């Protein structure tokens, strides 16, 4: 019965929110007297299942999130919208009294709510999505429960990308299989920064993909549990929303696979998926979130889905080159019109205002003449950079042998290990050039410390080997050309990194238990004193 009341209350909230979305605050749908009477009936019996609710909560590993109480005004509104035309997976069996045992196992989860409410468009990057549950200090269970009880946190989000990246919006990956919601993103944020996913509680996803190191690491190789080093540099975690296959060799087919892999990798988090889930199950805050975000609750696949959802919101902001290109394209198209701005303002004020807005935006995101020359050179045949670094995210998402590391006695064969195709030997995925100045060192093996070294590598044509990509050729570049290319990457392609909250994590299970016991003692003392 208690669960039925929770269902009624959350459906009321959903109906109210749906009414707001769909009717724009207008008149409520007509009242269905029979449904309203049923809702009143259920309310009258709300206390009958309290004992059974407590027993069920204990059996399931912790209390289910509590919804805020419904006041009289909301109850009246609930009666007015009880018959709102909202799709739901919760179906009443014919001939079964809602007060009966048939509804005892009904659960309302985020995936249900997502189906009931219209999707919401969000512009990435959006710091509100990665700011954490509002509050200070360790994240407490009651804060999580209140936050999860708000239906807007379960609404499916349709992301739009910012200037520059927007040109690649059609390439967004993974949302059909794993839709974004605020609740899922927030759960992923907590997991991303939580070292308890590792075997010795020292390594989190952020250990190798840190916000203050361009969502990568400043070490040559990734460093895992017990200070173990891998043999590859940590790739950046931003703008992954435009990519399906992950890692330098593309061995993970999706962001979800990428998120799951390091947990069980012996030189990264060195855990097992089973042990990871057992650890998370010991924290009521995680149990509560997984219960309400995913229909099947806490599983390793859902851990991966949550982390991948958070990573898909890690999108870089527009860079100076993006603003410059917008302005330059306008100036070329309307060259004659902008020769006399006074006349343009008088004859076509709308076009004039558009030009002035583009000019202002570019001035607020300045780019040097050297960087502009470097950008034009980057896109020219002389430098040939766009043979691989093309598109909105400056990467073809393909694999190429640049000769890096191929002079070693036993070189890393990269993509070949995955495909077993001879031509893939020594080939690695093309990284994005956006914000590249913030993620040194470079190349798959971290062997090059600066962008100047990278440009020199390309200029000399890489290191010859039998699998060298045909796209790697010696370049006839002057010292000024090289300096301009570096300026373009440093100045022109550096936008704002997404802002994320690295704290606001759940306390250790022991700490949470001690806090709960302390609060219980205080409540008993207050009751006794009263």
UniProtKB/TrEMBL annotation:
PANTHER family: BLL6722 PROTEIN, CYTOCHROME C PEROXIDASE-RELATED
Keywords: Coiled coil, Heme, Iron, Metal-binding, Oxidoreductase, Peroxidase, Signal
Region (Disordered): 32-83, 510-530
Compartments (UniProt record): Cell envelope
Gene3D superfamilies listed in its UniProt record: Cytochrome c-like domain (1.10.760.10)
Enzyme Commission designation: 1.11.1.5
Domain Cytochrome c stretches: 183-314, 369-493
Record-linked Pfam families: CCP_MauG
Coiled coil stretches, renumbered: 327-361
Enzyme class: oxidoreductase
Designated gene of the protein: ccp_1
Compositionally biased residues, Basic and acidic residues: 40-56
Source superkingdom: Bacteria
Location (main, coarse): other
GO cellular component, one term: cell envelope
GO terms assigned for molecular function: cytochrome-c peroxidase activity; electron transfer activity; heme binding; metal ion binding
Lineage: Bacteria, Pseudomonadati, Planctomycetota, Planctomycetia, Pirellulales
Protein name as it appears in the record: Cytochrome c551 peroxidase
